[in-house]
Structures are given as structure tokens and as C-alpha cells.
Design brief:
By secondary structure, this protein is an alpha+beta fold. The protein has 2 domains: 1-48, Pemi-like Protein 1, Chain: D; 51-90, no CATH class. It has helices at 20-25, 75-89; strands at residues 34-39, 42-47, 65-68, 71-73. This is AbrB/MazE/SpoVT family DNA-binding domain-containing protein.
Length: 90
């Protein structure tokens, strides 16, 4: 595990502030969900990526298909990707 050298205090409601530098480097925007894990005596925060989320649209639908390991596309996302590929080859 890599130390960032950043220390934050927990407030009276149990909250901590995640520094903007970390949010930028991990591409965590305001209102993004963060998943919380516990490993022994560690708390691990990870940007939440819903399972089967479309790589293009971000939508989570039962119609999403896995086109390669871990790469899911919704029907709309597949159409957008196909249009982009076709426009690049023209």
C-alpha cells in the first residue's frame, strides 16, 4: 500500500474529506458513489463501478452484453461505438 502523506480528522458525524488531488487522480466526481471495503485493520475506498455497466453510456441494464472480459455494452452504447468506428473508417 502506498502512503499519500495526507491525514484527515473524522468529524463529529463520522465524515472525512477526500482531498481533491485524490479525487482527480481516481476520477471521482462530486456525487459519484464510493464503495467501502474492510481488510484486516484497513478501510479501503474505491470508486463504485456497477457490475455490467455499459462502458459507453454507464447504464446498468439487463440487456447489456459482455463483448470481452469485463467490457459490457448496452444496445445504445454498442450503436454509438459502431457509429464512431464507421465514421473513423470513412
Amino acid at each position: 500500500m502506498k502512503s499519500t502523506g495526507i491525514v484527515r480528522k473524522v468529524d463529529e458525524l463520522g465524515r472525512i474529506v477526500m482531498p481533491i488531488e485524490l479525487r482527480r487522480s481516481l476520477e471521482i466526481a462530486e456525487a459519484d458513489a464510493v464503495e467501502i471495503f474492510i481488510e484486516e485493520d484497513k478501510i479501503i475506498l474505491k470508486k463504485y463501478e456497477p457490475y455490467r455497466a455499459c462502458l459507453i453510456t454507464g447504464e446498468v441494464k439487463k440487456e447489456n452484453e459482455e463483448y470481452a472480459p469485463g467490457i459490457f455494452l448496452s444496445p445504445e452504447g454498442a450503436e454509438i461505438l459502431l457509429q464512431q468506428i464507421q465514421s473513423q473508417s470513412s
